[in-house]
Structures are given as C-alpha cells and as structure tokens.
Queue: 2 jobs
Job 1
Amino acid sequence: MKQLQEKIIQEGKVLSDQVLKVDTFLNHQIDPPLMQAIGEEFAERFKGSGITKILTIESSGIAPSMMAGLILGVPVIFARKRKSVTMNDNLYTASVHSFTKNVTSDISVSKDFLKNGDVVLVIDDFLANGQAALGLLDILKQSGAELAGVGIVIEKGFQPGGEMLRGKGIRVESLAIVESLENGTVEFREEGVS
Ligand code: 5GP
C-alpha cells in the first residue's frame, strides 16, 4: 500500500535493525485518514470472505480494526491484556510473549462475543515473530469460530511470523512488508512477492 509505505519513509524511526517506531501515526498519535485508507484496503482484500467479526489486541490494533469494521459492517473485538473488574470467568484466555516488551502475559476475550459460526478476520498493527497472532488464533480455536485470515498493517518480513503463519495455510495480508531495517534505512519487499 503506497500511501502507508510513504508514511513509514517520512515518519518512521528505525530504532535498531529489529524495531521500527511509528508512533506519529499508529502506536501513540493516530492518523485518522490513514487509518480510514487502511480499513478500506483490508475491507477490499477480505470482501467476499463472509466475515462476521474482527478480532484484534489492545491497544494499537484497535484503530485499524475499527476502520475495517466500519467498512465491512461488522463488530470489532479487542483481546484485553489485563482483566477488567467487569470481566468474570466467562473468558477465553491465551498466553502471548510480547516482542517489544519481552514479557509473557495472558490475553482474554469474553465468551459472549465469539461463537461457533463466526467468521473472523484477525488484525494487528505489526507482525514480528507471530506470537500475538498465535494468541488470537488460540482464542479463536477455543471459541469454535472460523478464521478468514490475518490482516497486518506492517509486517517485518525478516522476522519469522509471516512465514510461520503462511506455512500453516493461513491467509496473511500485510499492507506493508519491511524487508530490512539495516543501516537505519527502511527497505520494503516489492508488492506481489511473498
Ligand atoms: P509478534 O507477536 O508478531 O512477535 O509481535 C507483534 C507485536 O509486537 C505487535 O502487536 C506490536 O505491538 C509489537 N511489535 C513488534 N515489532 C514491532 C516494531 O518493530 N515496532 C513496533 N512499534 N511494535 C512492534
């Protein structure tokens, strides 16, 4: 997605060979018109898949998911990283090791919102090692819902998550695939090459 690539080039900060900071438009401050374009792109790529719900993880997955949900006309559920006092035991839970924080934590989703018969699009901001995606897929499996595919805003193609998910036969649609962050420079994978 050209508009997203341009934004990453203009505003992304390469923190190391492994980590890209995009807190001017996705991870802290949010750019609504760009989120709208991202939502439209996800909706276009997954139209016709019969999606009934979008599942993401707080907090940075929520903005792109909301826009995709608005366009597809389906609810958006975000897995919570901390249990809320209003959440009871009626939960699906999974363990996720965080790439950026280097801690393992439980994520949870109320059983009220995911059911057998749902067709779910999983969305997240970044794909690195695929741990967040695996946690969400674990929750989907527990619920009996069907996975339509995984939509990622920025995939780091030099880390193993994308290959691991695609190797399981999962449809992964990434709007920008970063091939390298070496020498402080962002290099993208050409579109159509996976
Ligand atoms: P994974 O679970 O695929 O290893 O990592 C994905 C999660 O880690 C995303 O939800 C995202 O929050 C965070 N993450 C991974 N790599 C980066 C990165 O380079 N930059 C930022 N801002 N977040 C990242």
Job 2
Amino acid sequence: MTKLVIAIDGPAAAGKGTLARKLAEAFGLPHLDTGLTYRATAKALLDAGKPLDDEAVAADMAARIDLAGLDRNILSAHQIGEAASKIAAMPSVRRSLVEAQRRFADNGDGAVLDGRDIGTVVCPDAAVKLYVTADAQVRARRRYDEIIARGEAADFSAILADVQRRDERDMGRKDSPLRPADDAHLLDTSKMGIEAAFQAAIAYIHARL
Ligand code: C5P
C-alpha cells in the first residue's frame, strides 16, 4: 500500500478537527491534532510559572512534549489557546514541534494531521491537502453554541473578537503563517454541516487516489 498522508489546515473552529478525526477513522490512519502540541507547550510553561515571551525557554519546553500524552480535554482552556498562539509565532518552538510532527507523519502507512501549516510546511508532499474554512461569524457562533450547550455563560461579541484576533495572529506571523497550500482543496463549511463536509472530502480524496 502506498503511504497516505492527509494534511488538513484552517483557522480555529472551522471544523477541521472533527473532519480530521472522521477521515482518520474512515481510512484507518492515526491522527495528530498538531494544535495540541502548541497547547501542551503553552500549558507546561504556564504550569511552571515560566514567561511566555522567552523563546529559548519555550523551545526547551517544546522539545520535551510527548505526542502520546496529548489530551484536548486538559488543553482546551481559552487561556491555553491564547498562550499557544503566542508561542506558535516563535521559530525555534515551531522547529522543534514540526520535527516531532514529521516523525509522526513518516511512521507507518500514513497519517492524518490537522493544524495551520501542515500542507505548507510540515508535510508539503502530502498526497491530499484540504483547507477547511468558514466565515468568522459562523465560527464564532459555533464556539458560542458549544459553550451554551455546556450550560456556561458566553458573550458572542467577545468570542467573535477572539476568533478574529487569533486569525490575525496566525495569518500574520512571519514563520509559517496560516494560508492554503497552492495545491490544497478548499472546503468552506460556512453553509455546510460536518457530515456534508466529510462526504465532500471523501469524494475529493477518492478522485485523487
Ligand atoms: O488548533 P488550536 O486552536 O488547538 O491551535 C492552537 C494554536 O496553535 C493556534 O492558534 C496556532 O497559533 C497554533 N498552531 C500552529 N500551527 C499548527 C497548529 C496550531 O501555529 N500546525
């Protein structure tokens, strides 16, 4: 069997994580949510009381992250996401995490990786590249609905401002900015449920293989 690497990129709350999990299951491949590697590094720094603006300290922490121990439940806090997006702008943090992510992708029959720079930097030779996006309003609404469904209080305009700030930071940084790879297939989920996005992705992948 030839190796199948599926690279999925896109902004926060576009649906790429759910899509990545479903595709990994459908193709029997391991899945890595690379956002968790940045989140785990950020959490380790916060827990240790270390500064978030010292690149050498952050890179040292990034080098110790164990991909096997990543758990979104522990890493989902808003404060961790914010800190992750700050340290993700540091080239030596990225170098260390990208190396671990590439090792994951190179192992076995293939893998599904999702993040911000998978098709452009981590796996530029991936057989399949998807760029999953949606309007900022729609993404903020999804976040809002998730929080309300948990029975917590939420402020839509604060969430929207947050989504926009994160987009600016991820798209505007010098090292590995978020953008679609030239050969990525675009999936706009603004008006599409996750099942429709999954079916569209499956059809695209089968047409490519
Ligand atoms: O996807 P998630 O929100 O968990 O990612 C947290 C942060 O990690 C993002 O805002 C982004 O700054 C960073 N990240 C990245 N490159 C990736 C994955 C995530 O820069 N491949």
